[in-house]
Specification:
Layout lengths: L21 E3 L22 H4 L8 E3 L30 H11 L3 H12 L4 H13 L7 H13 L3 H13 L7 H13 L3 H13 L7 H13 L3 H13 L7 H13 L3 H13 L7 H13 L3 H13 L7 H12 L6 H8 L3 H15 L3
Helix pairs in contact: 2-3, 3-4, 4-5, 5-6, 6-7, 7-8, 8-9, 9-10, 10-11, 11-12, 12-13, 13-14, 14-15, 15-17
Amino acid sequence: MKLPRITLLAALVLATPAAAQLQLTPPATIPSPAPDKQKPKEAPKDAAKDKPKAAPHTITKKKEAAPAPKPSASPSPTLPATVIPAPATDNSNVDLVFGAYQRGQYKTAFDLASARAKTGDAKAMTMLGELYSNAMGIRRDYAKAVEWYKRASDAGDREAMFALAMLRMAGRGGPVDKGEAVKLMASAAKLGEPKAAYNLALLYLDGQTLPQDVKRSAELLRQAADAGLPEAQYALATFYKEGTGVPKDPERSVRLLQAASLADNVDAEVEYAIALFNGTGTPQNKPAAVALLRKAARQGSAIAQSRLAWVMIYGDGTPVDKIEGFKWHLVARTAGKGEPELDKQFSQLPPEDQAKAEAAAKKWLGTK
């Protein structure tokens, strides 16, 4: 049975890794393009005449960018709708509970889980905690969620341990108890719960709830990354790129970015695109890099939108398309990721081209 796509990982509002702001380094006198949601237009036949004499050759990070994810000082977790992984059991009754849950039949899942919990089934208890904490099929009751998560946790269920840790961290269903939350996360991590290992790694990195220990953080990230958690793969990639808690290893960093990108981690897509564009830790492949930037831009990454703008305007790795490029620049600018140089170049466009780019940006933003 497949695991649900959304997990309790999203509940911890410590920081998940965020891609650092990226910057192309084109010649100062040459404008940069902005990406578009639509398929890039074919370059005009005389594009070669209009194409800038020089084009950007590298994509880099700004110096102020954070090398690795950092947890925030005061997490305020909110539990998502799908937390419980498929039960590791052949018990058909438990599978019925999970099946009802996956189909959105929460009242049925609640009734079935209640019956199974009476027999001491830990997975059913965890399901009841999930349903109570997220008001699925029943009124939200954090106190009861804590009760069921604790019973399942005491029975050795690692997902319940992590869920209970999140509630303790947030002070839901009881007072805030970070000490207990950390113990529960550590126990869940030892039992192989990747989300617990990842979030525990962030706590060691932050150095507020736990003493800062970047090596221990790296070990926990490796555990979660090896289990296939995209957020951990991305975070560990930044560690290997910067040499945080591990030796610098660009090739390993890129392999992790690639894995996280395949799982649709947007930040990883942007970083992997940069590695491909520059040939850092992997053979250079600008068309593939642009394709990833376009994908991330369409997923809402303002950084990808800004970088895609540059390459489309310059035609580096993709045909020149200034209308599409400046469209993406205008979109990125609404999120604070615009570039003054592109503003200057935009002002020099013919009025009709400015109007086209603005109309395309408004359409993308849904403001037209």
